[in-house]
Amino acid sequence: MALEARPPGTWVDRPAAPSDRSASDVSQSVSEAAVSDQPSFAWSKGLDGVPALHARGPYFLELFSGTAGLSEAVQLRGVPTLPPVDIVVSPLVPEPVDLIDMITWSTVLKVLTSGLVFFLHCGTPCNTFTAARKLDGGPPPLRSALRPMGLPDLSQDNQCLVLLGNIFLSRSAEACFIVFHFGGDFSIENPLLSLIWVTAIMEQLVADTRALALDFDQCAFGALSLKPTRLLCSSELLDDVQMRCPGGHRHVKLKGKMRDPQTGYWVFRTKAAQVYPWALCATMAEAIAVLYNDALAHFAPSFALTTPASDRKRPLGSGKPWLGHRQEATALKAQWAGYQLKRGAAKPLPGDAKGSLEMY
What we know:
With 360 residues, the protein is α/β, with parallel strands linked by helices. The chain has helices at 23-29, 32-36, 69-76, 102-113, 156-181, 200-209, 269-272, 278-293, 300-303, 328-336, and strands spanning 59-63, 117-122, 185-191, 212-217, 228-233, 257-259, 266-268, 319-321, 357-359.
C-alpha cells in the first residue's frame, strides 16, 4: 500500500519488511559503519559483560523485540544499540533471552540502573491481554475490564499464561520506571483495546512518569490490517506516530490463521500482525535519534521565548546595587531569633554567590 506522505527522516527504498528478509539480506541492509559502532555485548555473558558497556553509550534497548525491526531502524540512524531482547531467535536477535529467568533479569536491571539506556522500548506481549479473545470457539478470554489481572476459575494452563503475562507487564513497567528515574525515556506498545492499559500497574506508571498515550492505526504505516495501536511514551517527540487510517484501501481482518512465511507453521493472524511495519519503525527511530543527539531538542520552542532587548529595563546579566530594605534591621533581629524571612528582607550572607549585588 502506497503512503500519501512518508514519515520524517532519511529514507532508503527497501524491498520488503524486516520479517520477510533472510539473515544475509539483513546483514547487507545495515551499513558497516553502523555495525562497527555498536557495542560488543551479549546478554548471555551476564553481569560480567556489563562493565564493558561503559566505554560507549548511552544506548537504545528493545525488550520483547520480536523480529527487532525497531532496533534495526534505530541502529541505521547511527544510535548505539544494545542487542534486542526476545525469547525467539531471528536474523536480528542473535540469541534467545528469557526475561523470566532471574539471572537474565538481574543483568537487565544492572544495565538499566547504571544509567546506560537513554531510551527503552517494550513490545510487551499482549496475547493474554488482547480483546481478540472471545467466546466464539477460538482462544477464550483470560481477563476482563473488571479483572484485568486474570479471571477466576481458569484452567491450570490458562492460569500459567496469565501469570506469564502479569510478569511481563510488571517487568516492563519496572524497567520503564528505572529508565525514567535515571533521566531517560521509554515507550510501551500494545493494541489500543488491550486490557493492559486498565491495569493498576500501568495506571501507576502513567501517574509516576506523566507518560503520554499516542494512538494510531498501523495501516497508516503500510500494515495490511487496520490494527489500532497505543504507544505509551514519556517523550512528546514521538507525536508523529499519531496517524489514523487515511482510507482508500481495504484491511485484512485479524481473524483465523495463516502460514508463517519464515517457519512454515500455521499461526494466528494476530500473532503475525505483531511485526511492526517498516515505516512505523523508521518514524520512531527518527524521534529516538533526535533524543540521542540532543536530549533537550523538544525544549527549543520554550528557549526561543525571550524578551526583546528593546523591552528590557536594563541589559541581560547586568547587576543592580543592593539598596537595602526598609525593614532590614527588624529582619536581622528576626533572623537571629531563628525566624524564616521573606526573600529580600535581609541582605544576602557574605558567602552568598550573588555577593552584594542582586542579579536579575
